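Z., the sequence and structure:
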Amino acid sequence: MVSNAEPSWGVILLGHGSQRGASPRECACAWQQPAPDDTGQSNDGGSIADLPGWPVWCRQCPSTPQGLGEVAGRLQARLGEEQAQVILSCLEFIEPFPDEAVRMLSQQGRNRVVVLPYLLGNGKHATVEMDEMLDEVRAQSPEVELVLADGLGSDPRLADLIVERIEDMGDAAPIPGNGQLVGIMLVKAGTRTQYDDCLWLAELGQMVEVRMGEGYAVDVAQSHYGDPTMEFAASRLIVERGVTSLICVPYIFFPGLILTRNVVGTLNRLQETYPTVKMTVAPPLGVDDRLIEVAVDRVHQAWGER
């Protein structure tokens, strides 16, 4: 186990990245809200959440670049500069890329580096691409000892966070009553089934169902590419379990195209398929201290296993 007397580590907070920012219209709180011109009113430069019809539970989530930067800052504060130097790196779109981040840490004399995948799934980015990237970086920087930490995975604290995001919605979230079940569909960003069997997601969904308690039914899905699909999860909840309302929970960090195009886009089609079922969307995860706590634990585990 590392101690304060030992040389400090480098820690690479490794995200997927995004080539673009995101507007409030690309977040869950835009679900079934009026388009900007529909209100006929201006908010005089204020938050779009102040516009008439915008939900009070809007979290004004940061875009991916902003959010990841905040996560890196919080992780640095939690680990302490005496023990670790944290650098944000992404697999694509956002520099520095992993090879450059490792060189930057090596130039600072930090030749023991933990690579922490800040990813919510176990898909291609977290498996095949991760192994390929590590092989390339080790070949380029053989003087650096690279230690791969576990990703965020299925963790009770993440189940707590999901429940809180639902509770954040207040009166906008349907509640069970008179024998009517509320369905919760937990949806991750899509990856091909060959790379992620989503068993960890099913485990997380079971945790959420236990925490939500009687009157709620939970199922899980992917936004696109692989199984289980949102259509399959909706059928299980509505047809098989008989829910009369549905809360879609995007298991996604930040707003963007995956949320609007894939998650909300599919939900729009599901609403047409099941017009009598009231549907709504919870906010994404955003930046939260529970995510930071899980990340800190993954780093500590990597230090301990060295």
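The first helix runs from residue 64 to 79. The two ends are 8 Å apart (CA to CA).

Let me know what you think.
H.
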